[in-house]
Write a structure and sequence with these properties.
Strand order of the largest sheet: 6-9-10-3-11-12
Number of strands: 12
Shape: globular
Distance between the termini: 31 Å
Helix content: 25-40%
Strand content: 25-35%
Largest sheet: 6 strands, mixed
Order of helices and strands: EEEHEEHEEHHEHEHEEEHH
Structural class: alpha/beta
């Protein structure tokens, strides 16, 4: 589904990614872990197509198509979803209206007509129930006055409605208490199918107690320096990142 080949990227002439290779197949959950400043959020942004970052070389293939030059919107319409670490507030635009607009824009890009209102309402109710979202929440302005847990739950609700092929969760566990973490993770797990894939970016192993990855990759100094199964996350929790740094420096 997603194949990243030797991606190098920078921002403001500062090199961040220094040769990333990653292959994600349908039905898989991959986790990216690493210390602060290692390039985790940059990788998420580069995959999603954020314009702040410039790709120096390498390719990003999504379902066999090179999407390296596509805009954020074009990638989203093809099925790439990014859950932001710090979602923005949009006063005056309700959660429901935002979802309607986003969903119909995606349908329009695929040559489809707007979703009928009755079908839209039914889908919104089903997905809200799935994620334990109160209906009053849907009439609030997007992210305005939301707690950290509400913002993250709303991101997962958007993901549920848009049904992306690839969901990138950038530090979704940041600032969440254990109850909010459980609800968000349960929502992600319920949305998993054999046809979609998830890339989870996190500092901590605790999220991976709930969203169990098939593969864990450790990012350090702009490179993936170690990959393994879910047991690698436990090893990182136990040893910290110092041993990874030592290994990476020895290889260098």
């Amino acid at each position: 589904m997603l194949k990243i080949n030797n991606i190098h990227a920078h921002i403001d002439e500062k090199s961040i990614l220094k040769g990333i290779n990653l292959d994600i197949k349908p039905g898989e959950v991959h986790a990216i872990m690493g210390p602060n400043g290692s390039g985790k959020s940059t990788l998420a942004s580069v995959i999603a197509g954020k314009e702040d970052y410039e790709i120096e070389k390498g390719t990003i293939l999504f379902e066999g198509e090179d999407i390296s030059e596509l805009s954020v919107e074009e990638r989203a319409h093809k099925g790439v979803f990014l859950s932001f670490q710090y979602p923005v507030e949009i006063p005056g635009v309700t959660v429901t209206n935002f979802i309607k607009t986003a969903l119909n824009e995606t349908r329009k890009a695929k040559g489809l007509e707007d979703m009928p209102a009755s079908e839209m309402l039914k889908s919104i109710r089903e997905k809200a129930e799935l994620l334990e979202i109160d209906r009053k929440f849907l009439s609030r302005s997007l992210n305005e006055g939301f707690s950290g847990g509400e913002k993250k739950r709303n991101e997962i609700f958007q993901m549920a409605m848009l049904e992306p092929k690839l969901a990138i969760l950038d530090e979704t566990d940041s600032g969440l208490d254990i109850d909010a973490l459980r609800i968000v993770a349960n929502g992600v797990n319920k949305l998993k199918t054999k046809d979609n894939a998830t890339l989870v970016i996190t500092h901590y192993q605790r999220l991976l107690d709930y969203i169990v990855p098939d593969y864990v990759h450790v990012l350090y100094d702009g490179k993936i320096v170690k990959s393994g199964g879910k047991e690698l996350a436990f090893e990182l929790e136990e040893k910290g990142y110092d041993w990874i740094k030592q290994e990476a420096n020895q290889k260098a």
